[in-house]
Amino acid sequence: MGQLEVQVAVAKVRRYASSESGDTLEMIERPHGGLSFVLADGQGHGRPAKAISNLVAKKAVALLADGVRDGAAARGTHDFLYAYRQGKVSATLNIVSVDLASRSIVLSRNSHCPVVVSSTAGVRCLDEESQPIGVYPGTKPVITEVPIVPDTHVIVFTDGILEAGGRFGLRFDVVNLVGSLLANSQLDVQGLAEAILAAAIARDQGRPNDDMSVLAQAHVCAQEHSFAPAMWRMSEPDVLVYLDASLVTIRRRKGVDWGEDQLAEQRARLADARAHCHLYVNTEGLTEEKVFRRVRRFLDKLRG
């Protein structure tokens, strides 16, 4: 497997007329490699809910930082909240981990909200029954492992998203929305999270009935030059072709919001490849077919 790039985005909004969101998101680097993201939603609204979710998220992060596995960290966080608040306060808890040791995405759920996973095989909903933490003795998380492969998206959200539009008799089908967004647009992971949040707010007619949080994670093939300017040499290519384009064209083709600084950085990383390429092609104004034909003509000439 080639190098993979993990892209993560968050979109949040507090409940309408509430002073503070009761949702908390934390990130921690795993001791044995990888990252973990913790999303907690405290019972209630406003500052009391925020105090609970902060408490839960910090406890989970502390356990993960000590090398505790995700399932054990979720159970330990439940035991802590259950003892601390005597079983009178609940919270939902999601842990999303990119585990480099097992080369998998580990999803830990203590929430009635499903997790949406999209891959080349399609979009699926992980909605096995799960209980919040803090209320019932012996509560355990639902654990799912997903292989780390290119073009995999994981979307986690709180109940403000799931129940959006409920007071108006509307149902929010997040699974179908994610499938539609990924199939019909060039959204990056931040755009995906924001589009889901915007759709939920619209169903609440612009006044969110609950705190809303979306955590979106994408696993995409990384460009080799993103890591080392001379990495192209490792494959010892017989022919090296360098394709170039303007910033405007790159934005349009890739659907990215790059600035001049990002383009300059990419070109600096590619400088060694540009200096040693056999063929340079400025693709500005060219279709894929025209670029292919130009490269094909060059290769035919080389073969003589």
Quick structural overview:
35% of the residues lie in helices and 27% in strands. It has 304 residues and is α+β, with helices and mostly antiparallel strands.
Keywords:
single chain, 304 residues, alpha+beta, Phosphatase 2c, domain 1, 2 domains, five-stranded antiparallel β-sheet, 12 strands, 35% helix, 27% strand, elongated
Topology:
Blueprint (H helix, E strand, L loop, with lengths): L3 E10 L9 E7 L4 E9 L3 H20 L4 H15 L6 E9 L4 E7 L4 E5 L2 E5 L15 E6 L4 E6 L1 H4 L11 H11 L4 H15 L8 E10 L19 E4 L2 H8 L5 H10 L1 H6 L2 E4 L5 H16 L1
Parallel strand pairs: 11-12
Antiparallel strand pairs: 1-10, 2-3, 3-4, 4-5, 5-8, 6-7, 6-9, 9-10
Helix pairs in contact: 1-2
